[in-house]
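Field guide to reading this record: the first block holds the primary sequence, the second block holds the structure written as discrete tokens, and the final block holds curator observations. Each block starts with its own label. This record concerns Protein-arginine rhamnosyltransferase, catalogued under organism Pseudomonas hormoni.

BLOCK 1 — SEQUENCE
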Amino acid sequence: MPQMKSRWRWDIFCAVVDNFGDIGVTWRLARQLVTEHSLQVRLWVDDLRAFERLCPEIDTHAAQQWQEGVEVRQWPADWLPTDAADVVIAAFACQLPSGYMDAMAAREKPPLWLNLDYLSAEDWVIGCHGLPSVKYKSVQKYFFFPGFQKGTGGLLRESGLLERRRQFQQSPEAQRKFLQGLGIDRAQGAQLISLFAYENTGLASWLEVMAADSIPTHLLVPEGRILGDVERWLGIDGLAAGAVHVRDALTVQVLPFVRQEQYDHLLWCCDFNAVRGEDSFVRAQWAGRPLLWHIYRQDEDIHLDKLEAFLTLYTKGLSAPAREAISGLWRAWNAGHDMSGHWLTTRKHWPELQKHAEAWCLEQALQADLAAALVQFYLNQTGNEEPQ
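BLOCK 2 — STRUCTURE
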């Protein structure tokens, strides 16, 4: 991959909706473009308070600041005249300011304008990836789809990520120190599970079956929307970071919301990871451990089509019983149904699911990562010419 020159400027626009997936993805992408491709990157964010959870150093009142080499800009409601960059990424179909679009059209050489879309395993994504979309005056927009198959934009993956993960997972001492830093004292022989999810009526049945199990479970719950369901099951109010509650074979511990690098290490420590949305979903796959995805709910249940498309890809190579077990678990979780029977069935196929999770991770790593794919797309579109 050719190294981009630092005077090539990229703008990434992120409109925070109601979770952390959008800012999580764009923040990871912006940092990688700076550190691995030597780009100048401005990250425009309309809600720096949400960003602060991922990057505590953020000044939520600053109109302009630099964090880890990225120029972070407050996306103001009243847009001020700003020169357009060489590459403009509208993350997740957000609408660019009209004044900025005029600035794109005013450039002597139009910028590359990309709509970085949501992650999906659906077949149609391959056919749409890289195609032209709408045009604004002289500026053409293109679809850019992350994905799991050849012909898509791949997944966010920093250079050397899997090697760092391998070394960490092979070091019990490194894991122990990390967990101790979060106040986690893992009981001998306990399986470690992380739980990051939206509200889910199926949670109580899952907690019940883990509490009644012969194998102890230490459940780590980062602060988030699922805490209300945990509280109801425990029969208490006001769960906060640091709380630890034990019921029979199940220990429930609430963790603080941690920055992205720490969350990666948490996933690497756990035997099983329940994740949500897009950013944590991808990171759980790089952990190489069995996982459970709580997909973001969409109108008319179209999210279930995305769920089934991923399951079709992910479960290839599994034996029929293991495939039915993990698929049943995912479907029950996303429907808010009883989890007990599905969890017990899944546990019967644990060794196979563990091997499969690592194999899937390595298979996905054969693709170019998302940042590298974006850079290559730019080079291809511009004929490897330096922008004006």
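BLOCK 3 — OBSERVATIONS
Residues 212 and 254 are 20 Å apart (CA to CA).
Residues 1-5 have pLDDT under 50 and may be disordered.
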